[in-house]
Amino acid sequence: MRARKTESEIRREQIVQAALDLIGDQGLSSLSIAAIAERVGIVPSALYRHFKSKDEVLDAVLELLRSRLLANVAQARKETPEALQRLRRLLVRQVRLLSENRAIPQVVFSDGIYTGHAERKAKVAQMITAYLGRIQEILEEGKQEGTIRQDVVPSTASLMFLGLILPAAVLSNISEGRFDLIAHAESAWPTFARCIAARR
């Protein structure tokens, strides 16, 4: 039986989500302890009971993104046994995650996150590598089950999969949501699927 979260754990999650939302709304440069505390509805001194610094908050933001990305892969795996359908369901989940968390491209691909922080830069690299690795596993399984072409290179196709939506998420952000991320994903998927699907 899973233990209930403590008030402290809940507050930490609220702080991290507030930081992510703040970056999405106002950019990385707007992030400060005072701004995060205001968004959560607490005084800055109360925030320091959970995080020692803004850097600690940023590290927690990265961990949150990592856990959500990998949870999406795990959930897509549970929903269907077939590789192509797993990738399609993962794409849907990825679109939803990016729609709800506009800051993700800024956090993952902004050098402002990790400039001067070798350890954080390594965390970003590990997060992306782990996510791509899970996609490569699905692609490899698809080759073994015969639904994905044998000449598909999983490392290349996983990057292509990631590219289906990330540039579109940036466009959606800079257009204030006028670029339809969901419609783009729906039209991009058939083209990608045709590129990797085995002929039957």
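Next protein, fold it too.
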Amino acid sequence: MDNRALSTVVEKLLSMGLVLLYIGLVTTTLYGGTVPAYQSAVGAELGDRTLAEATARVEQAVPPAARAVSATVRVSLPDTIDGVGYTIQTDGDTLVLDHPDPEIGGRTQPLLPDRVDTLEGEWQSGSSTVVVVSGTRGSVAVTLEAER
């Protein structure tokens, strides 16, 4: 009796089994640790960039000293960070990015002229947002709000 044909089938089955085992291990390693860590890092980086861009736009919205100040500047923000909505709100003279993921978020203080008395308001992600600046030469208010 000749069993040579059977050895070829067994060899192919063992080769396919090893390839499937390798693919399974690589997939488990990536989706078990590497990919979620990368997504979290990307979300945190996007949160930092969003807060920095919002701060820069607030700073740029305040025009040079004039008798009367009235300006509205549109601000473009991402609809979501890491697939989830967020808010940017004021806390005294700072901007705070609030996100459900504790790894994403932060605080920053815009560099505003001394004539700016108040910084207030809130932006919700996914809506059109603007910075409204109003007041007189010595007293200016900066407000974050949804575009009307």
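About the second fold: The radius of gyration is 27 Å.
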